[in-house]
Records
---
Amino acid sequence: MRNFATLYFTTLLLFATQVSAVGGYQATYELVVGNLSVGKMDRSFVVAADGVYHFTSTFQTTGLAAILRKEQVTESSSGTFRDGVFAPEQYTYTRKRKKKPKHITTQFDRTGNRIDTIINNQQKSSSLPAGVLDKLIYQAALMHDLELGKPQFRYVIADRGKEKIYEPVAEGNVSIETELGTFETIKLTWQSKGDSKSTTFWCAAQFGYLPVRVLHRDEDGSETIASIVTYQKRDVDNGMDN
């Protein structure tokens, strides 16, 4: 059985909202490997009127996959979105399973101009580059850039004490059928450097360019598909669904 924590990361499930000062959402995806449903992912994103955002994502194995390997991965990102720019302040990652649990906390110290990352009680520090994002909120930044009509994308990501560059490429418009209906989407692909891994995702303008489907292809040719199954827009002021 595949490593589901790796599956969670490598799918690079890109999810965002129509980024406004008073909007938010909740959504769920189903993850499938071959003909087997292996898990679900719940996501919640909120931006308050003062520009403070909170983004959370939880993946857990389900069905047969949960019997073979019970696992849960939770990510969170908090910071600000002002003048069209995301500025993360804290990112956390927690993997719960019997073997090799992991906890990561990343603090973005803009006063001290540094990034402090703690991985299972071991700390790493590095300088804070201009415009750097974390692994979760960059996904919202990409969707925002799609909404602005930008033709090219490049993001500097702080990842476990290192910097990585993500450059997804837009490949045209495609109609995609889902449990929520048919959507006109923009197809984008991210190709890993140094190996044959790739991730393709289809982002729907109707939902502010959140992806309604994601396909990850591993080095061995195996594929994982994540498909949206629920979506609710949230009211920031009272937390009620619209």
Note: The radius of gyration is 17 Å.
---
Amino acid sequence: MGGGWGMVSRWEYYRDLVWVLTERDLKLKYKNHLLGFVWSLLLPFSQALVFYVAFQFIFRVRIENYAFFLLTGLFPWQWFTSGLQVGTMAIVSSAPLIKKTVFPKELVVVTGVLGEALHFLLAQVVLIGLLLAGGVVPAWSWLGLLLLIPLQYLLICGISFGTSALAVFFRDTLWMVNIALNLGFYLTPILYDLDMLPGGWSWLLFLNPMTSFVLLYRKIYLEGIVEWSWLGIAVVYTVVVLVLGFLFFRWLRWRFAEVL
């Protein structure tokens, strides 16, 4: 009985620690910032505006509701980018805490990504408001977001476990992550549709784990459909990446305090 209560109290401690660390990260991020959370909205909106003008009026891309097409792809990508950047540096930026306190180091990564997830959730409220104002009809398939959003969170955590462990030993890791993100942006169907690719080549984009996520968000929001084959791909990527990233993190974490 005592062991059971001990386990419950431990989980309560970890839960409280997650919220304390998340609150700390958010306060540090927006300290002395005038607009705060609004900046996380302005970035994808400004990108969408530039891409909309370029691809609608210069390159003449013919995609229906192209503004919504862009936004439903840019918001998930923005979360993936910011979450991975924060997650990659989570251990390094929390060096004093890592060296002085005994607790599961994975929680530092989890809370860093969680803070960016909260931004994404607030952004989805704004996006849904714009979609409704633009005449998009809500569908039951929107409930699929309740599965898709946690899946993306776990995917980002899985990658961040690996990159944050590497960053402890190689501080250039964030630069490599940023380069990969810049390349990945154009290898993800955010600006263009899969149908625009030459026949037989679209499958190559599914080697990028974010392809299935972006397509799923777009399909759910704009067509009211959950594409189960894409969801299956997203689940497989998430499970594989999360397990491998977690094992890699645990393999190296015993040296964190020594190196930091």
Note: The two ends are 39 Å apart (CA to CA).
---
Amino acid sequence: MSRGHAVGLEPVMSEQTTVPVRRRWLSSSGFGMLALGAALAMGFAYAAQSVSRAMIAMRTASTIKVKGTASIDLTSDRAVWKAVVTARGATLPEAYARLNTGVERLKRFVTENGFTPEEIRPEAVDTGMTHARDTKGNELPRIESYTLNQSVAVLSDKVDKVKQLSERATELIKEGVEVRSNDPAFLISNPDNAKADLLAEATRNAFERANTLANGSGSRVGALQSASQGVIKILARGEIDNNEYGRDYDTTAIQKTMRAVVSLEYAIDR
């Protein structure tokens, strides 16, 4: 018998496709840990080099810069106070007559409170005019009234009395005197007398700080290389000043504190 073949079926030759096998270890967790370890090692090495360089720089520094501070308490020995008297009138002579009456009454009030005429200093008169206006509010040439102001200053070493005077002056309003009392200013007449001692103390403070830093590193403070003085401030007693460029001279308080800052640079001996 002859062998038959199945209809529609032909032998199929299989073709083997070769696929390159990737090296899976490139993406394995083991390689990731290896890379992380290498990165950390490089980071630690760099950090160690930075610290080493900083330590070398500190040990090889030839100078040291420090700041010194000092303060001293002072009491104001001078005071200045001003009051302003105001008067009005339909005419200039009328306004001036009222102003003169008010100023003279203020001057008597000052002397009644323990001051001498030599401590009283009237200042120049300031003149103002009020013009009439029409029904639309437009200013007209006609002068409706005059307003005069005159300041009276008191300069004295009776500091406490000046403070009391400033608080009592408006009692004159009850007598018909239009007066405005300004805040007194309390001053130190000779601040330079205290500055020399203050700067000397600030310099000693800076030197002590330099010694503390130098001794901690096994060195000694050498010769002074440079020095600069900061702003000397006179502040109200107990005031905390954190602003290097703030107010330099407080005039509101009788009790004050003078503060100084110096910056010094010393050589370092090893």
Note: The radius of gyration is 44 Å.
---
Amino acid sequence: MKTKFFMMMALVVLLIGGNACTEEDKGLVPDDGTSLGNGGDAVPDPEGTILVSVRNANNGKTVVGLFETGGFYIDGGDNFVPYHYGYYADDIDFCSVGAVNGLGNVREAPSKGWASTVAVQEGHGYFVRYKTNNGYYVYARLYVEKYILSAANTILGAYVKYQSPYEPENIEDILVDIPDAQFRAYLAAEFDTNSDGILTPQEAVSVTAIWCSSRQISSLQGIELFTNLTILDCSFNEITEFAPIAFQANDIELLE
């Protein structure tokens, strides 16, 4: 009788212990800031999520084209690698955020760990980024739902969910609010002080003069984000509307 009672108690303890495992025990990224806010409980797939079956290079080589970001495939060693269409350059790279519960848990892009190739791992989330000719980054996010396995249990590829483009929650980039490509290229070239492809509010606040004459600019939308601007030379462009700077026109020396 004592033996049976001990075995039952051991079973209860085992069951309780099994239910008490943490996200770390399950290999999932804790949503406590230690991984930039990625991870946490599963959330529904975001609107625009696409699920694709991606065969690796040894088994058909599926190429996935990410809208505005670029293309990728899985190579013979089961790594994500860029697919070059000709106009996409080697600036496409990847970064893993570790094991997460789904695509919606891939939220904040890391500042380091980026590479041109990264291992495909079941249940892991990833960011992809592409540096445009205008000097700023466009992002996408991926989630490997599960491997595609053969009857012999070898990896043939993976089922991948993605959203492209996607703006990471932790990146404040005012370039995304500049619709004119020529104006955006000028701002990125002149004021992205650390050359990371992002123009932050901190970088914008230090700008007091903009000299962007003769650049085929047609819109100054977004210039209102440069709150300390005192001189603006936008002469010899194609601008017809100066409403974006009306709020501080009295403080700006406008050369047109």
Note: The chain has three helices and twelve strands.
